Amino acid sequence: DSRAADRTVDSVCPYCGVGCQLTYHIKDDPEHGERILFVEGRDGPSNQGRLCVKGRFGFDYPNHPARLTRPLIRRPGVPKGLDPDFDPRAPLTHFREASWEEALDLAAGGLAALKSAHGPDALAGFGSAKCSNEEAWLFQKLVRVGFGSNHVDHCTRLCHASSVAALMECIGSGAVTASFMQALQADVVILTGCNPAINHPVAATYFKQAARNGTKLIILDPRGQALDAYAHRSVRFTPGGDVSLYNAMLHVIVDEGLFDQAYIDAHTEGFEALKAHVRELTPEAMSPACGVAPEQIRELARLYATADKAMIFWGMGISQHVHGTDNARCLISLALACGQTGRPGTGLHPLRGQNNVQGASDAGMIPMVLPDYQPVTDAQVRAAFEELWNAPLNPTPGLTVVEIMDAIAAGTVKGMYILGENPAMSDPDLNHARKAMAKLEHLVVQDLFVTETAQFADVILPASAWPEKDGTVTNTNRQVQLGRAAVPLPGEAKPDWWIIQQIAVRLGLDWDYQHPREVFAEMTQGMASLDHISWERLERESSVTYPCPANDAPGADVVFSEAFPTESGRARFTPTRPLPPDEPVDGDFPTVLITGRQLEHWHTGSMTRRSRVLDDLEPEPVASLAPAELVRLRLTPGEHITITTRRGAITLKVRVDPLMREGMVFVPFCYGEAAANLLTNPALDPVGKIPEFKYAACRLERV
Ligand code: SF4
User: Fold this and answer.
1) Which residues cross the membrane (predicted)?
2) Which single residue of 168, 229, 590, 617 has CA 20 to 30 Å from 123?
C-alpha cells in the first residue's frame, strides 16, 4: 500500500497558539526521499486528538518547489525592493547561490562593519513567534551580546503586546491566568474581540462543548461569527467602541453593587479610584459610542458579575488598537471587581496567536525586557544575565517593530538580521515599511522561501521547517511542548539554531552548542518560569505547564489563587477613558477597514499558501462585505473593488458575508497580490506600541 507509512514521529502543530499535539506519518519514498504522508491529532492536553484544517493539511509546505536549499547572495547592482514580476519558481535573477562559508562571512561581516562604524544601536533583529523557544533565546542573546543592542522584537508587537502590557501592569504577569479548558467549568464565558472558530479552531470546540453543557457564552465583537450559533448573547458593538462598552459594564457593576467586596479587599488595590472614575460612564452615556443599548449593557454586566464562575477570553480585535492596552485594562478590572480569577472556571485569557508567541516572548525576544519579562533597566537583572552569558549588557530598552522601521527610515538603524519574520507583508503602512527596508545598508534574512522580506535581503540563509527540527514551544495555556524532527532538511538547508550560532561565532562569541537541549538547559538557569521543566522530562511527557512546583508535579492550570506576582501581592485596577480611533471615518473615507486571518491561511501566508490543500481551499484575496454593502455598491459577489486609505490602495474580489455589519469591510492580510497592510494605519498604542490594525478609514469603489 503506497499510503502506508513507514514510521511515525510525535510533534506539535506549527500554526496557532492552541498548540495541538500531532503525529506525522512518514513514508520513505525511494523517488522523493522521506516525506510526510499525513498527520493525525494526538491526545495532547490542549487538543485531545483534535486538529483543524491547518493542522491536518498544512504539512507539505517544506516540500514546495520554491523551498530554499542553498544560501543566496544579492547580485551586485540589483536594486533592493519587491519585484512585481517575482516568480519563485523561475530561476533567480536578483540573487546567486553561494557556499555557507561565503554567505555566513558576508552576513556577519556586514553586521560587524556597521557596528564598528556606527555603534551597536545601528543594528536590530526581528525574530519570529514561529521560532522555537531555543531559537528565540539564542536570537535575542545574539542581538544583546553580539550586536550590543536591545533592538530585538518579533510579531508579539503586532499581536498581544498591549494585552501583555496591561496584564504586567495590573496583575504582574503577562501570561493567561487559566487555560481555555477551564471554560468547561465556567458558568459564563465572555469572548470578545476574538473569533476562535477561525483563529483558534480547536479551542472553539471546547467553547462549543462548554455551551452544550450549559455555560452561557457571551460574544462581544463588531463582526458576527460561527460561535454565535452557540451563544447565550451575541452583541455586535461599533468598531472602536470597546472601551466605552466595558466601562459602562463596570459602571453597572459598581452602581448595582454587584462587585465582590471580600475578593477586592483581599486581593486588589485601587478599587475606590475605579469606582469614582466610572461613576459618569453610564450605559446611557456610553451607548452612542459603542452602539449597544443601555438595557443590553446592564444585562451583560449582570450576567458576568452574578455568575459563580466566569472567564474572559480576548483576541486581536481588542489588542490591535491605539487603545489596546486600555481595552485589556478594562477586562482585567471586570474580572478583579467580580472576583473572577484564581479559581477553577474563572480567569483572564488573551488567546495567543502564533504557536510560540508565548514562548518567544518568555524567552526575551522583546526590546525592553530580558527573559521572563525582567526589565533591561534593572541593574540586578542585568548583572544576573551578564554572569550567565559572560558579557556586558546594554541598559537602554530597545525599539519596537514599528519604531525600528521608523529608525531605518530616519537612517539610524542601518543593518538587520530577520529570522522567520515577514515585515514586508506584516507591518502596517507597507509602502513606508518597504521603503525603509530598501534603505538598509545590510539585511540578512533567514527563512524557508524568498519571502517578500527576503527580496530586500543582501544575504538569504536557508533555514529549517518545523517538521525538520527538535525544539520546544509554549502555547496559549502556558504548556511547554516538545516538537521532534520528523524528516531531514532538504539540500544544504540548516537548523536555525546552527545558523544563529555561526553568525555569533563570526561576531566573536565563543558559542558551542551541539543541540537545542543544551540551549534549553541554559534557559532553565535564567528563567524561573521553567523551574522543574527539563528537556528530558519533555521527552517523556511531551508537555508540562508552567509554573510547575516539582519535577513530578503537573503544572498549574489556574494561577494566582493566593496572591498576584506584584510587589504588594495585590492586583491593581487601572481606570481608562474612552478614546476615539486614531483615524475616524469621514466623508472621504467613510468605511471601517478591519484586517485579520482566515481559517485556511496563517499570517502572511508564507507557509499555508505553499500548502496545496490550504491554497486550493482559499486561493485568492477577497474582501468580505455585508449584503447591504454589495447592494449599495451595485456589486455581485466575485466582482472587484478597489479599497483605498490615506496610505495606499488594493484591488480584489468581493465576497458577501452576512456576519459583517454595514459600513465595514474585512480583508485578510496573507495575500501579497492584494496586501492588506498597504492600507493599515501605523498609529501606535502608546503603552503596548501595537499598531491599529483593527480600524482604518477607507473608501470602497467598484472597479
Ligand atoms: Fe494547529 Fe491551531 Fe489548528 Fe490546533 S487549532 S491544528 S494548533 S492551527
Assistant:
1) none
2) 168
**According to the model, what pLDDT value does residue 88 have?**
66
Cα distances (Å, whole numbers) of residue 545 to 87, 131, 556: 44, 19, 6
Q: How far is the CA of 366 from the centre of ligand 1 (A)?
A: 25
Are the C-beta atoms of 688 and 438 separated by less than 8 Å? Answer: no
Centre of ligand 1 to C-alpha 614, Å, is 13
46 CA distance to ligand 1 centroid (A)?
10
- Non-local (6+) Cβ contacts of 383 within 8 A are none
Bridging pattern class, strands 415-419 and 123-126: parallel
C-alpha dihedral sign at 251, 252, 257, 260? negative
Choose one of 11, 200, 357, 473 to mutate for the ligand 1 pocket test, by most ligand atoms within 8 angstroms of C-beta: 200
Q: How far is CA 55 from the centre of its chain?
A: 17
**Neighbouring-strand partners of residue 190:** 218, 312
Rg of the chain over all Cα atoms, to the nearest angstrom: 24
Instruction: Output the pTM of the full model.
Output: 0.96
> What is the structure's pLDDT at 692?
96
Residues having CB within 6 Å of any atom of ligand 1: 13, 15-16, 18-20, 47, 51-52, 54-55, 200-202
Q: Are 339 and 213 in contact (CB under 8 A)?
A: no
Q: Strands of 415-419's sheet, edge to edge? A: 95-97, 72-74, 459-462, 442-447, 415-419, 123-126, 152-153
Q: How many CB atoms lie within 10 A of CB 550?
A: 9
Of all residues in the chain, what percent carry a pLDDT higher than 90? Answer: 94
- What are the beta bridge partners of residue 22? 11, 41
Q: Are 189 and 313 in contact (CB under 8 A)?
A: yes
